[in-house]
Amino acid sequence: PNIQYEQLRRKILNGVQEMWYFVSGELKKLQKQALALSPQLATRITRVLEEGVVHKRSLITDMDTLSEVDGYAAWREKEASDLSNLVQRRLDYLQNPEDCGTARKLVCNLNKGCGYGCQLHHLVYCFTVAYGTERTLILKSRGWRYRKAGWEEVFLPVSRTCTDPSGQTHSHWPGRKDTQVVELPIVDSLSPRPPYLPLAVPKDLAPRLARLHGDPIVWWIGQFLKFLLRPQEATSNMIQEASIKRDFKRPVVGVHIRRTDKVGTEAAFHPLEEYMAAVDEYYNLLEMKQKVDRRRVYLASDDPKVIAEARRKYPEYDIVADPDVAKTAAVSTRYSDSSLNGIILDIHFLSLSDYLVCTFSSQVCRVAYEIMQTLYPDAARRFRSLDDVYYYGGQSSHIQVAVLPHHARDMNEMNLEQGDLIGIAGNHWDGYSKGKNLRTNQIGLYPSFKAQDRIETADFPTYPQVPL
Ligand code: GDP
Questions:
Q1: Which atom of ligand 1 has the smallest separation from the CA of 325?
Q2: CB of 341 sitting under 6 A from ligand 1
Q3: Are 298 and 320 in contact (CB under 8 A)?
Q4: pLDDT tens for residues 268-303?
């Protein structure tokens, strides 16, 4: 397929979704006003909402079907697998130098003072810089808060041939090109910042990724997780046993509800009903195409109370959850050994779900979403975040390009000319996004469908030693 076709297909899907966010959001506001004035009018609006959502589902289903019958489905599968194999072989090449004694190295300490999802993102950040600088990643993980013996007891070592951090010359970041061993700090104190940081994807892969995938950076991050999270046998067995014990079956919607220490500090509270409304909508859509025997939810949370609440309020659902969640996710022992298996399993099952409903402010859900990308040619649309758009901690700016002009209708909105660059702050999932117009420096709301993500690229090494 040509790239215009693939991008247009995704743009229409996105446009339908955004139009419905807008129309339903506005109608619900009108409905509230109507209730006070005229019950008949309110009822009428309810009918429009009820028919309208079916109309939306029908359009999305047709677009999904189009991608099944347009003759390119096999190509998408093959292209995704070819691209992934290429990146995995490059990582393998980078990580297994012939002579570790002379190899250039980048040392990364896993023990960033934060949770498991955050540490995985820290590790992936190290790995992208290693890839960008053609240095073998050396992982220091002794005394890891989640497993004292280190990473290698849980996952395969990041290298078969080279794990020794020693070398002829040492330096802190950035060092010189010929410094053998460079230590990388956490991204928060990284200076100077190299061009390889997210949201940048390698220029040599960008044209293929732009055609294949709805959000290339998420695919790119997913590839590093694919390499890093190859389980040790014991971990693999643990996952197998849990799949059987929890009777994990598809279709299933993965729901992650982050509460406790996150709420009020880094994220707002969202009631269970908000998550479940998104789950319902996923199944309503799915039922246009297939019969669904049971509506299943894989529910992960750091708050056991919300799992009990879900089972009480939604008896018509099969709610699968960690039976030991009270122990594994306890706040008191949260960031320690006893919680590792719990969080590995929750992320695993979330990533295997057909669709994710969560808050992207949580790294747990973002990791699951990233891993999910390794399981489909393009899983960019398989989520509903109740708060943030996708981001990567420490990322360089997230830029959108205006594809249509916009004239502000009130003080909260901003003007757009076609081609304007916008630093997007967030999508309000009501038809509008908020951002800063980089041409005018105006900050304000704009209709989400009038702008599109710009794909960021950087000149990464191209690994010509690894055959295409
Ligand atoms: P964030 O704080 O939500 O962005 O994610 P982090 O992974 O950095 O830190 C949160 C930590 O809380 C996790 O690493 C887990 O230890 C725990 N946690 C959060 N959500 C869950 C969950 O759904 N299941 C389990 N088992 N633990 C969780």
A1: 26
A2: no
A3: yes
A4: 999 999 999 999 999 999 999 999 999 999 999 999
Terminal Cα-to-Cα distance of the chain (whole angstroms)? 20
Cβ(339) – ligand 1 distance below 6 Å: yes
Cα 301 to ligand 1 centre (Å) = 8
Paired sense of beta strands 383-385 and 355-358, if any = parallel
Give 465's DSSP letter: T
CA of 40 to the centre of ligand 1 (A): 47
- 140 near 198, Cβ under 8 Å? no
Please report the pLDDT score of residue 46 as a whole number: 97
Q: State in Å: Cα 24 to ligand 1 middle.
A: 33
Provide the token pair at 79: 């292209």
The residues near 47 (Cβ < 8 Å, ≥ 6 apart) are: none
Secondary structure in 3-state letters for 71-113: CCHHHHHHHHHHHHHHHHHHHHHHHCCCCCCCCCEEEEECCCC
302 in contact with ligand 1, CB cutoff 6 A: yes
Q: What is the pLDDT of residues 176-216, one digit of tens each?
A: 999 999 999 999 999 999 999 999 999 999 999 999 999 99
Cβ atoms of 319 and 310 closer than 8 Å:
yes
Atom 23 of ligand 1: nearest residue by CA position: 301
H helix runs in 134-200, sequence order: none
- What phi and psi values does residue 299 have, to the nearest 5 degrees? -105, 115
Three-state secondary structure call for residue 263 = strand
* Residue of 116, 366, 387 best suited for mutating to test ligand 1, as the one with most atoms within 8 Å of CB: 116
Which ligand 1 atom lies nearest to the CA of residue 118? 8
pLDDT at 233: 98
Tokens of 192: 């100077």
The pLDDT value given to residue 332: 81
